[in-house]
Amino acid sequence: YVYGLSIAYSLASQDGIGRVLLLVGETMSKTVSDHDKVTTPLFGDAGTATLIEKGEGYGPSCFVLHSDGGGSDMLRVPYGGYRNPSSAEGFERKVDEEGNILDGEQLHMRGMDVFNFGLRVVPSGIKEILKVLGMGIEDVDIIHFHQANRFMTDFFAKKLRFPLDRVPYSLGYFGNTSAASIPLNMVHTMYDGSFPRRRHVLMVGFGAGLAWGTAYLSLENLRISKLIEY
Questions:
Q1: What is the pLDDT of residues 110-143, one digit of tens each?
Q2: Which helix (H) or strand (E) holds 65?
Q3: 112 Cβ partners below 8 Å, 6+ apart?
Q4: I want to staple 22 with a disulfide (CB 3.0 to 4.6 A). Which of 8, 11, 40, 182 is the partner?
Q5: Taking a C-beta distance cutoff of 8 angstroms, is the pair 188, 228 a contact?
Q6: What is the dihedral of CA 25, 18, 202, 41, to 10 degrees?
Q7: pTM (2 decimals)?
Q8: CB-based burial, 88-101: b 16+ in 10 Å, e otherwise
């Protein structure tokens, strides 16, 4: 979502473009194995729509983006792409070292490696964008983290000495909805008027790729639509 938002803002800043609609959705239930105790309880499905509009008085924005292809095997679907097209071998179910049963067309996640990756890059990414902005963590009103793991997000906040009551959280309601988790978290936690201080907001995403990014926005003029659940 952070990467997509950066592209949308870049497009909206050009002459002749006044509005950009960013659509982000994931149906992770289609990619996880029912016999994988690592991924099945964790992931959920969601779709979001974000309208970015050009105008005066909306405040500055800043994006810091990173990627490291060396960790691409930590979170992947091995078959079904150009490198390994769908084949009989890809649909063969196998038992991994932890006893999970899944095939090559389903999501494979090395949970502890992804966990350690997040612990390593997320706090440093936040410090990096604050340095670019010339701000301190005490200036930030809200941090919306990718909803991957409650322990992780609490750890990030504590390491940064940021108040936990200003870190909205929705994983317990929807699971990890992958790229849609940040905007879903915003709608779920701020629709009722909670977190009225929205002048200095950070959004932090991390995951497959491996990729991670941090965005700084002012959301004082943010309009939030009602969440639709199915």
A1: 888 888 898 899 999 999 999 999 999 999 999 9
A2: strand 62-67
A3: none
A4: 8
A5: no
A6: -10
A7: 0.91
A8: eebeeeeeeeeebe
Cα Rg, the chain, nearest whole Å:
18
Does the structure show a pLDDT above 90 at 37?
no
From the list 179, 111, 167, 174, the residue with the least C-alpha distance to 141 is 167
114: its two tokens: 């992804």
pLDDT value at position 1? 96
d(CA 143, CA 128): 15
Nearest of 116, 89, 93, 95 to residue 103 by alpha carbon: 93
- 44, 176 Cβ separation under 8 angstroms: yes
- Residue-by-residue DSSP string for 10-57: HHHTSTT--EEEEEEEEEGGGTS-TB-TTTTTTB-EEEEEEEEE--TT
